[in-house]
Amino acid sequence: MSHDNAFDLAIIGGGSGGLSLASGTAQLGLKVALIEGHKMGGDCLNYGCVPSKALLAAAKSIYQAQHQAPKFGAELEFKALDFSKVMQHVSSVIKTIEPHDSVERFESLGVHVFQEHGQFLDANTIKAGEQTIKAKKIVVATGSSPFIPPIKGIDNADFLTNETIFDLSILPKHLIVIGGGPIGCELAQAFAMLGSKVTIIEAMTILPKDDEDCVAVIRQSLKDMGVDILEGAKVNEVVQKNQSVIEVHITTSSEDKTLTGSHILVATGRKPNVEKLSLDKAGVSFSKKGIEVNARLQTSQKHISALGDVVGPYQFTHMASYQAGIVLRNVAFKMPAKVNYSAVPWVTYTYPELAHVGKSENDIKEPSDFIITKWPFSESDRAQTEDETTGFIKVITDKKGRIFGVTIVGIHAGELILPWVMALREGKSLRAFTDTIAAYPTLSEVSKQVSGEFYKPKLFSKKVRTLVSWLQKLWW
What we know:
Blueprint: E1 6-12, H1 16-27, E2 32-35, H2 42-46, H3 49-67, H4 83-97, H5 103-108, E3 112-114, E4 118-122, E5 125-128, E6 131-140, E7 144-146, E8 174-178, H6 182-194, E9 197-202, H7 212-224, E10 228-231, E11 234-242, E12 245-251, E13 256-261, E14 263-266, E15 270-272, H8 279-282, E16 286-287, E17 290-291, E18 304-306, H9 317-332, E19 346-348, E20 353-358, E21 370-376, H10 381-386, E22 392-398, E23 403-410, H11 413-416, H12 418-425, H13 431-434, H14 445-459, H15 462-473
Parallel strand pairs: 1-2, 1-6, 2-3, 6-18, 8-9, 8-14, 9-10
Antiparallel strand pairs: 4-5, 5-6, 7-15, 11-12, 12-13, 16-17, 19-20, 20-23, 21-22, 22-23
């Protein structure tokens, strides 16, 4: 083996986490190998966040032109939808962002890119195609892929996942979505807004990790768009009748039914990509849930770390980037940096959006220790001007107003969550919002208004009124 293939750091996986770490460590002067056998940019750029948000933006614009523009006085005649142009928008967004994640860019930063799948030969050696790579430190960032449940007939069916749905060239007549998590709900809504008939089949309830009150708003929005939602439903069998007809046999709480659609999307969660790594040869402990790591993201072999979806516990691009920062501090600066998951935001990009950070109502063991304060978007002047009054903000605090969790369902909820993430991370109380001037009229005022709502009973209490009355009698 040549001396050229000896590195300070080898990273397996060129998704958002691996790329972020490769970029940082190479620019700090480490000799870095990046091993990626598929597409640079990983799931997020090619099949996840970027294409799905591009599709949602197109769908929302088309839907609003039909349903909201008439409220503002525009009489529009909707002639036809050119689905190929919608998909052109999706692919053009990917192509615009692609150079940022390209092999050329990373090689220009000094990263040695191996365009092969990586596999451990031992704890310090990786095989990438015909090459053998040795490294002092190794990081596994191989991400996750769609989990396909063992449904009878699924292997013989022409089903879609989030990795293949963006290759569609014609709009589905009837899209049946198996799974009502964030991916299922976002894509179901996008296709419903574009004009497809859509059915969601969910074994439990849709968006089960989110606040029930907020999920109720999303559920109603989906139904208002014509999406059929079958919750508590079990899929028994999938039958591909012909190229354009697919049957799904299900059992609900009340009956057995057969649904007939043109396309099926399987969105039943994701599984960590551990199979092809030969982790056992490196002595790295893992399970079906992914690679086991400590708070410093080190595996059972301390010189091997892992980050992103292959680790969890949150399968978000921003989590992979955050974890990459922790690993960078450990590897490059030899700092004992540890992960802190107390203020992790997540957003479901439905219409309206749902954003969350910290504790939810379900997490509260002793409700008497906490106070829940809500404020509706209908009370926001800006939301009224935009005719976007659906939703509310819900804040969980202790009795002194210290913030423990926030969920927002409403227009631009994903943008409105950031100051709450910062406040939660810094241990702030609602005073951080009441004492801040918010521009008028903006949606950001909902954060200030909900905070003011918390203090209202104290501010206008009998004690305070007596004090004010007494102060007025003083002469000066």
